[in-house]
Design a protein that fits this description.
about 35% helix; Rossmann fold; six-stranded mixed sheet; four-stranded antiparallel sheet; Alpha-Beta Plaits; elongated; about 325 residues; alpha/beta
Length: about 325
């Protein structure tokens, strides 16, 4: 495999904390791998290990066909990295920031300008070359961060929650840029994200908990695991509806989704649960607007794996 990432047995401990616990992970060429999980799951540590910021206690990392332990500098040349708290030089302009990062990456004065302008055009910042970085919006700062990660034409992008705190429109634009990079340049992307709608855009999603990847699969395959097992319940008062739902035989979990509830039920129990709710809610003083089986969302999948704590799974149903 010439491009992409292979990690085997990746382990990292800090005092009193096993942050990454024997993680196996593969990101193929032209693939977007979404790493999701609760705070403290080990996502950021994993990304820092993969890009060489941290050294693993155990395990092997191959980046673009290069062993990062044996040839760290050569491996890093393959990587573009955007951290959660990317630090721009706010008193410098957009173009000055790009020049600085280009020169740090070893681009000569003859090389950096033309390439940088193409990148700025690509990320939509070509009209803002003279604006100070400190005057950019949050979304534009992240675009500039992406531009700096691309100055040396990496084949691998490691993005640590790149759209956290960015407005929905800018999130959409940022993801369009990522997808274009993958489709036109064959870039391999590993991105951690707290947003399940972003996870659904990925080729493969890995759910991380307690330093381990507890399950890994294509988003559509993950959804199939809950087919027929998610009921959406709408009515008032919501607190009473939740209390009633938790008492019904066959209901495994109840979660709030805005003004409605999602019930995770045992396999084949959905019809029985719905009939029980239709009978019970009015008798307990609740108002039932609707109750029906729905297609699982990525949030449902995420919650199900966290609550059930299912065992390890690697690329199940690969086909």
């Amino acid at each position: 495999m010439e491009s992409g990432i292979i990690a085997r047995g990746l382990t990292k401990s800090f005092p009193n904390v096993l942050a990454v616990d024997h993680v196996d992970l593969t990101v193929r060429e032209g693939e977007i791998y979404g790493l999701v999980g609760p705070d403290g799951a080990g996502k950021t540590t994993t990304i820092r290990l993969l890009c060489g910021v941290l050294r693993p206690d155990e395990g092997e990392i191959i980046v673009g066909g290069i062993n990062i332990r044996q040839h760290p500098d050569l491996a890093r040349e393959q990587i573009g990295y955007l951290s959660q708290r990317f630090s721009l030089y706010e008193e410098m302009t957009v173009l000055e920031n790009l020049r600085f990062f280009s020169e740090v990456r070893g681009l000569s004065s003859d090389e950096w300008y033309g390439h940088t302008m193409k990148i700025l055009e690509f990320v939509g910042l070509a009209d803002f070359v003279d604006r100070r970085a400190g005057q950019l919006s949050g979304g534009m700062k992240q675009k500039l961060g992406l531009a700096t990660a691309l100055v040396h034409k990496p084949k691998i992008l490691l993005l640590d929650e790149p759209t956290t705190g960015v407005d929905p429109l800018m999130r959409q634009e940022f993801w369009q840029l990522i997808i274009r990079l993958v489709n036109t340049e064959g870039v391999s992307v590993l991105v951690s994200t707290p947003y399940m709608d972003e996870a659904a855009r990925c080729t493969v999603v890995g759910f991380m908990k307690g330093g381990k990847i507890i399950v890994e699969d294509h988003p559509e395959n993950l959804r199939h695991r809950l087919d027929g097992r998610v009921i959406e319940l709408v009515g008032t008062p919501v607190r009473l509806l939740r209390e009633i739902a938790l008492e019904v035989d066959g209901v495994e979990d109840v979660q709030m989704f805005g003004d409605r509830l999602h019930l995770h039920v045992e396999n084949t129990k959905a019809k029985k649960v719905i009939k029980t709710l239709q009978r019970t809610i009015p008798g307990r003083g609740g108002a039932l607007t609707s109750v029906e089986v729905i297609s699982p969302q990525m949030e449902d999948i995420f919650i199900d794996f966290l609550t059930a704590n299912q065992g390890n799974g690697l690329r199940a149903n690969e086909g």
